[in-house]
Design goal:
Two copies of one chain form a homodimer. Chain A is an alpha/beta fold. In chain A, 44% of the residues lie in helices and 13% in strands. In chain A, helix 1 runs antiparallel to helix 13, helix 11 packs across helix 13 and helix 12 packs across helix 13.
Chain lengths: 441, 441
């Protein structure tokens, strides 16, 4: 079908009036829904029932450590082993920590600013620091850069990962580019999993900065929505083979496996990096919450069980993602005013409106009581130059609320698109008539 | 009685031989005891049995928050209220966080270096930074200064707190003195509780630095060993009354109330400081482990219950502290080679040997299989100028091990003291005879 842009203006105006009535109908419902963050829903959290009470008074780790007491900054041996297996690394290549992988990233950057990332290198804070930011991307990554006054260089996301040609070119010449943010699997928000080629080129590319680091936020490593999971190349191995063994920090957590607020977070890297990090962390804390680690190990036991557990998450999430796809397809599929991703895992759907419509859509939805992620949030400094990307987080609301929210959302996309098309036409008319006036004047 | 220094050298030598035989006897036992850290013992940890399993599937906080999910960087409302009552502050003056108060201190200093302690002030990292370090003090505080390249200025501890005259003089003139470490109640390691006068003068004194901060590590606020607890003046109130409302950060935790490795830590300060800190923390983490906070609130309920719980801790610890006092008094009481504190709370006894003996004592004990805190650890840079302070941590070992350890320790003090006295006399003889030689030469 032809799409909104081919409609004549009267048709669009009359459609707009009709849609506006529907929109007012939504407003009457006094909705109060929040689709702004990638939060697991209560049913997902229920999957981990019993985790806290599974110790039955046995607080000893396999090496005899009383997990109730101090110590063990690298994490319990069995926790390191279990989560190393999740990430395809060795136990000595991982630190299992508190409940927040974001805190691990934050603290790693704070340390890099103050002490550098290697004892042989200068603190980042001594000079300008830039990070490459594939976008659309994760707003909390970008917020860390803003906090630490790290200049962000946007790099477009493609279907196989970030634009690697551009990245190679940039890092080869600018020594102040010290890092890149990556969500390599079921990327936030586009759902893309990096291709083997992109991973390999990231690991092997020449960087002008000798202390360049990849911040590999593998938050959705096990978070498949289909029975044919995407495959991600093991970047730590590729880095090692490329003789860049210390280039990557891999982050992950059980926030979307066990409890979003009370899981276990981890960072993996070369043994050299991990040892240095453990040394610095031992000055920050006497140790992480080992009881929670022990609960996780006793509850989940092994990787196979975690995979089985993740299938239960997928069973809850699949209908939600499907519903969003169905409504978007039904409401917007033939109108040529939006494109969106169909992720095979992760927590988000990324939608692009016509240029200049995203803010308006989010605002319209908010005024009718449904909060979406702030438009622009998926770009550095909250600035989406084309004002067209919106992140949809379908995991938290129950299906009936999700249905309402997405129907309203689709309506808002249509309203904003029509307004945009009509405005563009009006502007064109004014431009044309002023040209006319100039000619005849 | 007269003490070792009055003995003639032959008596000392023969006593040394006798004690050395006893020491060899200890060596035969192949001891392997660790008295180096202030760790709670298993019986103390058992007091909190049931904490992890007390939720019974009810994960909702009083405001409806699902504690399993993301959010709430300041901590649960009921956790803020409970721990505010422990510290005598208001709920809005406290952030309840993860398991480590040391991490709160570390992160606060990292932020001060990078961003300053106030939006109106410069980052500390832009200039030289010095901290006042009452000593003997806590080695992990000093390690933080070393990490962040903060120059440490030692200030002697007195019976009523750190030497306040000296502190007032220093902070009045040096704008690079940005902070002071304090363990104000049952101080680590001397057991001193700061007098009202010292607290008041710390809160009211004029400081050259406008961004001077007191790091008030109130780790032992509720950790009384007697039925007549020490009283500590509420420094946050005194600071407010003195028109220095933002001067103090108060730290505490349940590490020695519930679990040393899996408790809840907190920081209290003015509402202004707390709001700024919460804003910065919200970029570091989406929230602390709220499930653990909920477990703590449900288990402990209120301040009265915590006090009752602390009495059970005291009942376990009192005999240990008493045993150390008894053995020290019996073995060293009349020999004038050591003085030690008799704390009414906290986790340590601080002992001073004759000058120049502490390292030797710790070394002798280690060679016989008993590890004490490294001599010098209680001073900045690990350097005790008089080499005489040793921190004794009696909480962890069972009584029979503690008895062995302290008997060995007392023996080591005697051995090292005799060696020191004999060496001093030999040195004196050499000096005298060289004076003699010079005279007759």
């Amino acid at each position: 079908m032809a799409g909104f842009t081919t409609y004549d203006s009267d048709t669009l105006r009359s459609l707009h009036r009709k849609l506006l009535l529907e929109y007012e109908g939504f407003k009457q419902k006094n909705l109060k829904l929040d689709m702004s963050r990638g939060k697991p829903c209560p049913e997902q959290l229920d999957l981990t029932d019993g985790l806290l009470s599974c110790l039955n008074g046995d607080y000893l780790a396999e090496d005899g450590t009383d997990c109730r007491n101090y110590g063990g900054v690298e994490g319990l041996p069995e926790a390191r082993r279990l989560f190393a297996s999740c990430l395809g690394v060795q136990p000595e290549e991982i630190i299992v920590s508190g409940n927040s992988s974001l805190a691990l990233m934050h603290d790693l950057i704070a340390r890099a600013m103050l002490f550098g990332v290697d004892d042989q290198e200068r603190p980042w804070g001594e000079g300008p620091v830039k990070f490459l930011c594939p976008c659309p991307g994760y707003d909390r990554h970008f917020a860390l850069c803003e906090l630490f006054k790290i200049e962000m260089i946007p790099v477009p996301m493609r279907d196989d990962g970030p634009a690697i040609d551009q990245i190679e070119e940039l890092v080869a010449h600018d020594p102040s580019i010290k890092g890149i943010w990556c969500v390599p699997m079921y990327s936030n928000p586009t759902g893309v999993t990096y291709s083997d080629e992109v991973v390999t080129r990231l690991a092997t590319m020449k960087t002008k900065a000798t202390d360049f680091r990849i911040f590999w936020d593998n938050a959705y490593a096990l978070h498949h929505l289909t029975d044919q999971p995407d495959r991600l190349l093991n970047i730590l191995e590729v880095c090692r083979e490329a003789n860049n063994p210390d280039r990557v920090y891999i982050f992950s957590s059980t926030s979307k496996i066990s409890y979003a607020g009370a899981g276990v977070a981890m960072v993996a890297s070369s043994v050299k990096n991990i040892r240095r990090l453990a040394r610095l962390m031992s000055l920050q804390t006497i140790g992480p919450n080992k009881l929670n680690q022990l609960c996780h190990v006793r509850f989940f036991k092994d990787l196979e069980n975690i995979h089985a557990h993740m299938k239960k998450h997928a069973a809850i999430l699949r209908p939600k993602f499907q519903l969003v796809q169905d409504i978007l397809q039904r409401e917007l599929g033939d109108k040529k005013i939006a494109t969106w991703t169909k992720p095979r895992g992760g927590y988000f759907i990324s939608l692009n409106t016509l240029e200049g419509c995203a803010k308006k859509v989010v605002q319209l939805a908010a005024e009718a009581g449904v909060i979406f992620t702030k438009a622009g949030a998926t770009f550095p400094y909250g600035y989406d130059p084309l004002d067209q990307n919106i992140r949809i987080a379908p995991t938290y609301p129950p299906l009936h609320e999700l249905k309402t929210a997405m129907e309203l959302f689709s309506l808002c996309v249509q309203l904003a698109s029509i307004e945009k098309i009509l405005m563009d036409r009006a502007a064109e008319t004014i431009t044309l008539s002023s040209v006319q006036t100039a000619k005849t004047g």
